[in-house]
Design goal:
The protein has 362 residues and is α/β, with parallel strands linked by helices. The chain has a domain at 8-194 and 226-252 and 318-331: Rossmann fold, CATH 3.40.50.720. It contains 14 helices and 13 strands. It has helices spanning 10-15, 27-38, 54-58, 76-82, 103-123, 156-159, 163-178, 205-211, 228-241, 257-268, 281-297, 306-311, 321-327, 334-347, and strands at residues 19-22, 43-47, 51-52, 67-70, 88-91, 128-132, 184-190, 192-194, 217-218, 222-227, 247-250, 253-256, 275-276. It has an eight-stranded mixed beta sheet, sandwiched between helices. Strand 5 (88-91), helix 5 and strand 6 form a beta-alpha-beta unit. The longest helix is centred in the first third of the chain and has 21 residues, at 103-123.
């Protein structure tokens, strides 16, 4: 099993001083916060909803350390007050949505929220910030051979159609423009986050749908994913050793949807779809449109929406070579990630019990 050593030594982290975390109740934010606490790093945890880091209490950590302060990043004075005394910050705030109707709210949070949060952090005296974005601002293509890196131009012809990726891209620009000598800003771009503990189903919903046999056909595209625990370690490595004004992709594996579903099938015992969607985007959309119209005509609703169907026809491949070379990012075996993700969904009773394989190496 992979350890937390890739996040950096306790001595190095502790010498950095206090770390302010925004978005500590999210999928990535909870893993990051727990990692900081386990390593004995002084930190201030915050999110809009506030609350308690239950995972920390389950490990017997002091309840005062597990407290998550309620802070709205749209209010820079709240951020300023909350981050006082911290020299470092990691901004994990955000909302995952594929719905076009959420475009306005996503812009406010990902673009204006990033701007206001950075203003507040700078006023508080923070000197170094890691801003979490997504690999989808760089890594989406119709070409299966295309593997994006940090030099890849943003594929605006694609991401402009999807509010989540569009607003994340403009949020990145805000972050990179804020970088300066006395206020270093680093952008980290993780691919699809998988692993245990996605309580709000922000990233693992597609795996749940597979286990529930919601897919009638396998999409023709490919995805990139990284273990959320490795991404959390990557954020700490970027905070310690990343270069201000730079982007860093974090990825664990690139895989066609066919190969991805085959692995899930071997782990869970749930068979992959027999049918495959055509590679033609227009033809795939046409088939889905007919299916959607027919199902709704009899009062049904497709378990997979049109936007998700379209996105699954693209390739989201990317390389984490820069992060690996510059600060030692090291993802675990993807089979372990998928196995732990499925186990977690079963253990939390999100899906029905399954005949699981005993091995994580699949």
């Amino acid at each position: 099993m992979k350890t937390l050593q890739t996040a950096g030594s306790e001595d190095t982290l502790q010498k950095m001083g206090s770390v302010w975390v925004g978005g500590a109740t999210g999928f990535l934010g909870r893993h990051l916060s727990l990692m900081l606490l386990q390593k004995g790093v002084s930190c201030k945890l915050s999110s809009r909803s506030g609350g308690t880091l239950e995972a920390a209490l389950a490990l017997g950590l002091d309840s005062s350390l597990a407290r998550i302060e309620s802070v709205d990043i749209m209010q820079e004075d709240e951020v300023d007050r909350s981050a006082q005394g911290c020299k470092n910050a990691i901004l994990c705030t955000g909302r995952v949505s594929r719905s076009p109707e959420d475009a306005g709210a996503l812009h406010q949070l990902h673009v204006e929220g990033t701007r206001l949060a950075l203003h507040g952090l700078k006023k508080a005296g923070v000197r170094r910030v890691v801003v979490v974005s997504t690999s989808g601002t760089l890594a989406v293509s119709r070409d299966q051979k295309m593997i994006a890196d940090e030099t890849t131009p943003a594929p605006m012809e694609y991401i402009a159609r999807w509010p989540y990726y569009r607003t994340k891209y403009y949020g990145e620009q805000v972050a990179l423009q804020a970088n300066e000598k006395e206020f270093e800003v680093i952008v980290v771009n993780p691919s699809l986050l998988l692993g245990p503990g996605d309580l709000n189903e922000s990233s693992t919903g597609d795996i749940r749908k597979f286990l529930e046999k919601a897919y009638l056909a396998t999409p023709a595209g490919g995805l990139a994913f990284v273990d959320v625990r490795d991404a959390a370690a990557g954020l700490l490595l970027a905070l310690q050793n990343g270069k201000g004004g730079e982007r860093y992709l974090l990825n664990g594996a690139n895989m066609t949807l066919k190969a991805f579903f085959a692995r899930l099938a071997r782990i869970s015992g749930v068979p992959a779809p027999v049918l495959s969607m055509p590679k033609s985007l227009q033809l795939a959309q046409g088939i889905f449109g007919l299916y959607d119209k027919g199902l709704r005509a009899i009062g049904g609703v497709p378990p997979v929406d049109a936007v998700s169907t379209e996105m699954a026809q693209y390739y989201w491949y990317c390389s984490a070579k820069k992060a690996e070379q510059e600060f030692g990012f090291s993802p675990r075996d993807p089979g372990e990630t998928l196995y732990d993700t499925v186990c977690d969904l079963v253990e939390r009773q999100v899906v029905a019990p399954l005949e699981m394989r005993s091995s994580r190496r699949v």
